[in-house]
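Project outcomes to date are best conveyed with an example. Our students and postdoctoral researchers have been running inverse folding experiments weekly, and each run begins with a structure described purely in tokens. The record below, which covers 432 residues, was selected by the lab manager from last quarter's runs and is presented without edits.
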């Protein structure tokens, strides 16, 4: 059996591990166009701030790769000949396959405005972007950052840590309104201001101004201009569908796959940020752009490619991140409504977070120790844990294992309830 995997991200690597757990002798080839190979993309944020060396972002040793026993081809696949089951690469070579995995990920939506191509305008997709940003930050003084999700905030914090003055532009009236509630957005914004970030609400960038092809400023819709040496943006992402479209596979916003990660061509599978996976729980196909689901989808795809039929069961999304230095866990559906800052979906984001669940909200805590629960009829649908993370693991279990919380529902929804204590007590009871 010949397996081909396009994309050297976490879903592609997980697929190889899965294939090898079933088939020790089949031929596996991975084709990837990132010159830096496989590394932790969430880790790029810590590389930007200087907390991690770039070497720390590579999770596999060369010994581990050897044991996985596959051929790695550096290059870009430009076409899939489905009838012949052959991949065409940009360097004019071709690779035959019996089973193909498209794991091409997603990429940043481009900034589309005058000046977007000037030297000094950056996105944060890959290791190479991070290296370019760091190089520029060494020479620059002031940056303008645009975008409303996690990646934009990572840019803000990275540039701040590198000694730059940062203007952060938000199109709406608060940070990440699609996922966080008003209080949570305020907590993040207050911390950013203390760190020295200049926040601009209802601020829309319409032009990057330049001189001799270099950034010198940013023009806003309301007529204001801000002097700067750099503009960094994270305004959403989109799955890389070029190959799937060229191959005539069924696509919507991502490549459509069933719960076995199989496309409408039974020889071709898709996984990770590029895949739009059928979720039986909600009866529709959804996009995630999270590391954990990408790994799980890649693993499930690999098993199915090697003939071990295994359904991918989507778990409620879960992400531990840092917002303005504050460790934050987001679990399941937390709602929040319309987010004007994002077109599509953000990095490290899940559509499930955006769908406002049919739930009542219980809240407690103060600025750096905040807890929000989305309380359904019989179970918890989601949670936001900011600051103290003691409850992060119990809540993840309670949400993902759909544990019946009827016995504590009233207590959670009582006025002035100490919801953290109620959850702790409930969790202790469960463990006993
Ligand atoms: C800055 C940043 C911060 C993030 N933070 C978080 C976080 O906090 N939590 C979280 O859960 N997730 C986070 N994510 C998202 C997470 O990294 C992704 O969900 C995950 O990497 C997706 O893995 P993947 O394998 O689907 O795709 P990718 O990691 O995107 O890998 C796909 C690879 O395929 C390559 N490729 C594309 N087309 C071709 C082609 N035609 N030929 C050859 N190669 C091709 C691409 O260059 C890329 O290397 C973050 C991502 C970024 C960029």
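After processing, the design step wrote out the following sequence:
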């Amino acid at each position: 059996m010949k397996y081909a995997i396009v994309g050297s991200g976490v879903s592609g690597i997980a697929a190889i591990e899965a294939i090898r757990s079933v088939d020790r002798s089949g031929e596996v080839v991975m084709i990837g166009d990132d010159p830096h190979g496989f590394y932790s993309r969430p880790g790029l944020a810590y590389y930007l701030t200087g907390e991690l060396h770039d070497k720390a972002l590579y999770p596999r040793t060369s010994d581990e790769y050897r044991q996985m026993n596959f051929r790695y081809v550096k290059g870009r696949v430009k076409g899939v000949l489905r009838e012949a089951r052959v991949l065409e690469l940009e360097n004019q070579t071709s690779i035959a396959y019996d089973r193909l995995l498209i794991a091409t990920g997603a990429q940043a939506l481009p900034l589309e405005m005058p000046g977007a191509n000037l030297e000094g305008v950056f996105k944060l997709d890959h290791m190479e972007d991070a290296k370019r940003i760091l190089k520029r930050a060494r020479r620059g003084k002031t940056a303008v950052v645009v975008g409303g999700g996690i990646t934009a905030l990572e840019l803000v914090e990275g540039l701040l840590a590198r000694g730059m003055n940062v203007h952060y532009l938000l199109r709406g009236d608060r940070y990440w309104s699609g996922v966080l509630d008003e209080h949570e957005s305020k907590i993040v914004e207050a911390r950013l201001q203390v760190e020295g970030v200049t926040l601009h609400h209802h601020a829309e960038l319409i032009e990057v101004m330049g001189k001799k092809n270099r950034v010198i400023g940013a023009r806003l819709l309301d007529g204001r201009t801000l002097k700067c040496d750099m503009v960094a943006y994270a305004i959403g992402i989109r799955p890389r569908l070029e190959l799937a479209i060229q191959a005539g596979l069924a696509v919507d916003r991502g490549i459509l796959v069933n719960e076995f990660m199989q496309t409408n061509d039974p020889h071709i599978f898709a996984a990770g940020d590029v895949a739009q996976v059928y979720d039986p729980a909600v009866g529709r196909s959804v996009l995630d752009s999270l590391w954990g689901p990408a790994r799980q989808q890649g693993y499930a795809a690999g098993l199915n490619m090697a003939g071990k039929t295994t359904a991918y069961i989507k778990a409620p999304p879960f992400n531990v991140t840092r917002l303005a230095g504050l460790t934050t866990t987001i679990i399941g559906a937390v709602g929040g409504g319309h987010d004007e800052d994002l077109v599509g979906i953000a990095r490290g984001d899940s559509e499930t977070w955006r769908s406002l669940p049919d739930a009542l909200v219980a809240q407690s805590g103060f600025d750096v120790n905040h807890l929000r629960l989305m309380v359904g009829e019989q179970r918890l649908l989601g949670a936001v844990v900011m600051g103290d993370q003691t409850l992060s693991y119990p809540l993840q279990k309670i949400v993902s294992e759909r544990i019946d919380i009827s016995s504590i529902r009233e207590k959670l929804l009582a006025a002035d309830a100490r919801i953290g204590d109620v959850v702790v007590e409930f969790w202790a009871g469960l463990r006993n």
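The pocket of flavin-adenine dinucleotide is lined by residues 6-12, 31-34, 41-42, 44-45, 76-77, 103-106, 124-125, 150-151, 154, 240, 243, 272-273, 289-292, 294, 319, 321, 347-348 (CB under 6 Å). Residues 338-344 have pLDDT under 50 and may be disordered. The training component of this project remains on track.
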